[in-house]
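so i finally got all the pieces together for this one. its two components total, 560 residues if u count the protein bits. some of the lines might not be protein, just check the labels. i wanna see the whole assembly predicted at once instead of chain by chain like last time, that was a mess tbh
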Amino acid sequence: MQPKISLQNVFYTYADETEALRNVSLDVLPNQVFVLFGPSRSGKSTMLRLLNRLSDLTDGARFQGTVLVDGRNVFDKSVDVFDLRRRVSMVFAVPTPLPGSIRDNLTYGLRMAGQRNGSLLEARVQKSLEQAALWDEVKDRLDSSAMALSGGQKQRLCLARSLAMEPEVILLDNPTSGLDPISTSVVEETLRDLVSQYTIVMVPHSVQQAARIADRAGFLLDGELVEVNTTENLFLHPQDQRTEDYITGRFG
Amino acid sequence: MDTAQAPPESLPNRRIGERIIEGIILVAGISTIIIVALIFLFLLKEGINAFLDIPLRELFGDRWYPIDGIYGLMPLLVGTTLVTIGAVIIAVPLGLVAAIYLGELAPQWLREILKPLIEILAGIPSIVLGFLGWVALAPLIQNAGADTGLTAFTGSLLLAYMSLPTIISISEDALYAVPKEYRDGSLALGATQWQTTWRVVLPAARSGLVIAVMLGIGRVIGETMGVLLVTGNAANMPPLGPGMLFNPVRTMTATIAAEMGEVAQGSLHYSVLFGIGLILFLITFVVNWLAARLVGVSGARTKVGGQV
């Protein structure tokens, strides 16, 4: 099976000489949840931002290696970066709705892509909210401000905002940070339901969440991808001592 | 039991200290209000005779000949309005565009050079800029075909230049204060840089931008020495029409500055000059009130959900 995403010998260095990624090679298969875990500052977010080229915005950073989506180099000159970001969508750790109503937030990406068809926009609003398990809570107040939602609702709104674009890949950078356990499990269930249609790459909130939600997982430490395996193998039979130390809580 | 009963010894002291600081802040806050009220009362006391002794019809007439006892303020009002509107039309778009460039597009190193330079511009004394306008700008205007280089338009250009640093610097601060997460969120949905700036960053920074523009306008209305030098100081009604801007005019501020030295204290002319001051004060008040309303309205709109 052709991997949906493939990183080959990727190095990424920030302007202050921090080596965020060192020789990372990795395949993500389609319709799987791939979880990337490791201590803070180990390069997880950097890697996510590389996949849809949000990393372009970082001044003075240096990049080396190859990033393929569907076998195509995302840094190739012929790639339209805005189109890439519509196909490889990202949800951030801090859920930040854009100023405006719930509906505005959901249709923003499509409108910016030039979509003017009102009934299509309406259909996407409902579909994406249903997928993100938010429809029942907000269907009566789509025109009220998105800022007034609770933390968990905002997080699902930001997820729905990405889903409304009907992307192929969803990148999630710690999407349950700051959520209570109930909201967390709602989001996790949502993601498990979505994976039949999407490829999901996620930075988890904790090792436990990684084990709960992943099909495959990779352990990242100081920019080095220590170990990649199926969830069961990685968490029950880690090959590398550092992986074992981390998941058993000996450091981190 | 013992520990529960004995309060920490420093607590009463801390309370007194807290009260003193609160008191100082209160006095500082109230004193600014009192000073503004006193200024208003002073202007009212010195200027009220102008409104009582001269029939309003005459006071807002179109001839300003103080030597003959004719005090028609209309030419001065028109002068100030023309110069101000001209300056605002030039300075606001230019200032906002410059702020957007600085805040959203310029690379970090360039911003670090440009921002302090722009802020230094704000510190140049207006008389120095006025002198430059008189020596350098006025001949240009005259060569371009105006009867004289000293016109309302010259004043507008100069005032626009004077208010630009204020508008740019405060607008840029407002844009800078927009959380990075808004930009990331927008870009991650495939929006372009320009769409992100126009649809997300500018609306989010709206209240700060309104304040920047209003402070810029405040600077324009209140400016005196610069316009005194370059607008020609003719207290005539410019002929109505598109050429209005290219006639010499005199602003209200310039009138006070030019004539206050020559009037007898307590005379009618003296009162009229203070009356002009009173009108300027009210205009400033209205501008500030409008600004507060605009900011308030935009705040409320964000709450009920303006268009992204």
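Chain A touches chain B through 36 residues (CB under 8 Å).
The beta strands of chain A are 5-13, 19-28, 33-37, 62-69, 72-73, 88-91, 169-173, 199-203, 216-221, 224-230.
anyway lmk what u think
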